[in-house]
Amino acid sequence: MRLTMIGGGGFRTPLVYAALLRDRAPGRVTSVALVDTDEARLRTMTRILATQAQGVADAPAVTTHTDLAEGLRGADFVFSAIRVGGIEGRANDETIGLAHGVIGQETVGFGGISYALRTLPTVMHLAEVVKRVAPDAWVINFTNPAGLVTEAMAQVLGSRVIGICDSPIGLARRALSALGLPTGPNVEVDYAGLNHLGWVTSLRVDGVDRLPELLRRPQQIEAFEEGRLFGAEWIQTLGVLPNEYLHYYSYRREVLHSDQLASHTRARYLLEQQAAFWSDAHGAPDPLAVWEAARLDREATYMATSRDSVGMGERNADDLVSGGYENVAISLMRGIAYDEHSRLILNVPNAGTIPWLDDDAVVEVPCIVDASGAHPIPGAQVPDFGRGLVTTVKYVERETIEAGIGGSRAAALRALAHHPLVDSVRVADALLDSARATFPELSYLD
């Protein structure tokens, strides 16, 4: 199989390549095309991947491309992981948000909408080029906001675009670990919602739901990241396990206050950290070691202000393990390419799964994957208290898509003004004006 990675010079590429190296089953990926606009990063990334491949027989061949169409030709699968505006764009989102008294996090609220508005024209162009150059390819979307971007690209690619996020599987893995249980084929996780806005509603191991057992044990709840983030009492009150990004909704005041007190925003920190990484890795004799050190530092500081807002302190070693989106992606590829049925949590069109959302609304739910794609499993249950939030945020996503594709400033304003983390129409209007003044990419909005 041939895999094309859009944004192949990105920091997470070695995670995907490591998973490809571990996959020794027949029919595995044998060719990887890295596509990126930054030639220097592609050269450095090629050195990192070559170091990873040392001693591995028949490692997937790696080619690099700055021409999109060239990199897509012959692709069986396409990974899309791009960041329009780079880390600097994220930093500007955070700064603008805080200047107007709202959280600027990159995928929720103002930050997520601004990020999407910059990204949508680019991913829609990508979808059109895929349809023209590699019409039989399947697109696996990692580009954030993942659910929104997947829903927009589906307008061109239909069911051949599927979104992936590692938050749900990471949450399930950590919860099972708190009970002393490993993940495996005997585990079924029920999860429902939107990307970065969902809940684990059951953890079945050999057919027995172990979530009630976990909910009875406050000490075990607070043994893993999300349990400490929300607190055992609140999770017991909810009766389900919330995705970590729901912390921005549940503890909005505390997170905003922590952001305002922080010496620098998360993105400003990443700007410095990533600049040092690329500089150090460029000429390092072992660029993989430089990458691994930067990855661990990045994981250790993940959602730092959210943790600070509830006094969590440093992350535990178990929480630094990647959520595993790269392994989910390979399972998805193999399931489609070789009809290897698997159960995965994915971002796909609703198709009646959540009855009060329309069929085309992209949701994040368990799916069965086979040669014809990903099919949501009927019966996904959003908790009653979450229905209003899911409905509202889906409306915001839809208005953002309308703005991003149609160039409507009015739709962008509706999206911002109706988001639960933006508490005023005047603030929404001011945020939009600040974003348009900051980002040349938003000049299309009128």
TrEMBL record:
Residues at which substrate binds: R90, N144
A GO molecular function held by the record: hydrolase activity, hydrolyzing O-glycosyl compounds
UniProt GO BP: carbohydrate metabolic process
Cell cycle among keywords: no
Textual note on the cofactor: Binds 1 NAD(+) per subunit.
Entry-linked InterPro entries: GlycHydrolase_4_CS, Glyco_hydro_4, Glyco_hydro_4_C, Lactate_DH/Glyco_Ohase_4_C, NAD(P)-bd_dom_sf
Keyword Metal-binding: yes
Binding site for Mn(2+): C165, H196
Pfam families linked: Glyco_hydro_4, Glyco_hydro_4C
Active site, per annotation: D166, Y245
PROSITE patterns for the chain: GLYCOSYL_HYDROL_F4 (PS01324)
Family classification: Belongs to the glycosyl hydrolase 4 family.
Identification of the protein by name: 6-phospho-beta-glucosidase
Organism: Promicromonospora soli
